[in-house]
């Protein structure tokens, strides 16, 4: 009886053991069926081999690639000969030069980006100002004044980039001189006696690297020089346009781009439409140089009251024909004379037809009447003539292209300003 119980227990244990083994086999063969069992999943995950670590550091990857592609990375130690020691010294100098060239190349890319960003911001702001002026606005609109200052600051970024480009050009020229020296030094080392084959192999590596740097420096120098010339021309043009824009803001109306930026015409035809000024028998009047204050730098300084009773064409004003042909006549017979728009258009058209034209501004006042009144009108005419010159200069006309004169005529009833082209 007792033996039967023992045998039964053993059979039960065997069955339980077999069942457990069967479950283990099933779980090991098909782990997907045990996905709901956290313990089994954890066991299987632990049993899986760990993944191989992958390097994702980009700087390390670049360094590795640079090392693999750098011909000087496996330069090797000096052979101990005179030529070997010279090659090792030249290698250090070549590495310094390469570092300087790479630094200057990065600086050039940064400066080009900075200058472009400033130009984009400048033109965006100028476009907003121009659109507002096109629709008409108040004189010295504070919103436009603020935008003008922003445009001036953006143009300053381009100017700062230009200054740094000039400094960079000096540094590139210095690197080019060093590269030329190293190339000659490497070539001279080949002629030294007492070298082994390994020494000449090292010198060949140095020669190839310096030659590559020379090509890179030539390209960088050409690009830098081209950018300096391009940005210099751009700044010259846009500074004149910005000054003209300041004058337009002070008046609250759009007057166009600077007169200085009109296209140049080669071998232009004579300006036949310009009428002759004054009678040929008129006596020549004395010409005196006018003086005006410094050019304003912002529209805040340009706010002034100007108005015009302006005419273009022939007029019997009694001035010498040597002054040229009458282009514009401004008659100050009312308190406020608004002449800027028509004056700018007339002078711009004349410059398009005759790019090298010179201009004479004549202050004309009456010659008969009370002496005190005549003196006052003569002074007013001179002040008005200075204002016309200031307006032309602010619109971009070079002061050297303008001469000033003053006279009195019997035909003038009020102060007048005549503008002649010659």
Description of the structure:
- With 422 residues, the chain is of the alpha+beta class.
- It folds into three domains: 2-47; 84-257, Glutathione S-transferase Yfyf (Class Pi), Chain A, domain 2 (Up-down Bundle); 299-421, OmpA-like domain (60s Ribosomal Protein L30, Chain: A, 2-Layer Sandwich).
- The chain has helices at residues 2-29, 38-47, 58-69, 82-134, 142-189, 197-251, 340-353, 371-394; strands at 310-311, 325-331, 359-366, 402-409, 416-421.
- A five-stranded mixed beta sheet has the order 1-2-5-3-4, with helices on one face.
- The longest helix has 55 residues, at 197-251.
- The chain starts with a helix and ends with a strand.
- Residues 29-67, 263-308 and 312-319 have low confidence and may be disordered.
Comma- or semicolon-separated keywords:
8 helices, 60s Ribosomal Protein L30, Chain: A, five-stranded mixed beta sheet, alpha+beta, Glutathione S-transferase Yfyf (Class Pi), Chain A, domain 2, single chain, 3 domains, 5 strands, 58% helix, 422 residues
